[in-house]
């Protein structure tokens, strides 16, 4: 996913705050009585807990219910009709990844020499912050599909990552704030920790697919362990186009979970499937 730092300038959008982005998304879901993937979400600021000697800050998002394509057409052809828009899943989500640095598109750094300068300075800042915090971590520059990023390794990696990546997000936020202040620009970098974010996303996607197969095979619904709003949305989107299952969320706050249920097929559909399998 790419960043959309500009606000969601949609009528009916509202701002929500929380200790973290997930908590802010929870508040938006509760307000709109909707699932995360039913909303267009734009992250305005990211919350962090005040590690590395700096004060904490609450996360702020802007959210609005999505509209189906048919409703967009109706609004254009029947302007002023006053019909309410129905929120549906499946349209593009405007939320960037949990990583603050991922919010910086490659186009923000034009010249290669500037890019090298920015990433090198960011590395120095990250190393200095880790050193002052007394954390053992090595920071190296790596090149990914979206450009250069910083990868952290070391004995204290689990502490640097923190619960659900919160410390890593906080470190990334602070690095980019200092970087932008020193360079007087919108330059920014993404921080990784031995592919933590990539592995976490893949792990949840695999879990979603495995659980979906179990639901299809047994004909019973399965409930996943509690997940944050971002990870629940990943499950919903992963299984969105998987035939034979549907997903919904239950619970409140940090105990909110995703339920993966089989979709009962009609006798006609089962007969057609049987013919296709024997063909």
What does the model show?
The structure is a single chain. The chain has 3 domains: 14-96, no CATH class; 102-194, K homology (KH) domain (GMP Synthetase, Chain A, domain 3), CATH 3.30.300.20; 204-278, Ribosomal Protein S8, Chain: A, domain 1, CATH 3.30.1370. Helix 3 (112-132) packs across helix 5 and helix 6 packs across helix 7. The model is unreliable at 1-9 and 69-110 (pLDDT under 50). The chain is 39% helix and 18% strand. By secondary structure, it is of the alpha+beta class.
Beta-strand residue percentage = 15-25%
CATH superfamily of the largest domain: K homology (KH) domain
The top level CATH class name of the largest domain: Alpha Beta
Order of helices and strands: EHEEHHEEHHEHEHEEH
Count of individual beta strands: 9
* Beginning-to-end CA distance, first to last residue: 40 Å
Shape: elongated
Largest sheet: 3 strands, antiparallel
Number of domains: 3
Mean pLDDT: 77
* Total helical segments: 8
User: Which percent bin holds the helix content?
Assistant: 25-40%
- Classification by helices and strands: alpha+beta
What's the alpha carbon Rg, rounded to whole Å?
22 Å
- Which parts are unreliable, with pLDDT below 50 for 5 consecutive residues or more? 1-9, 69-110
**Order of neighbouring strands in the sheet with most strands:** 1-3-2
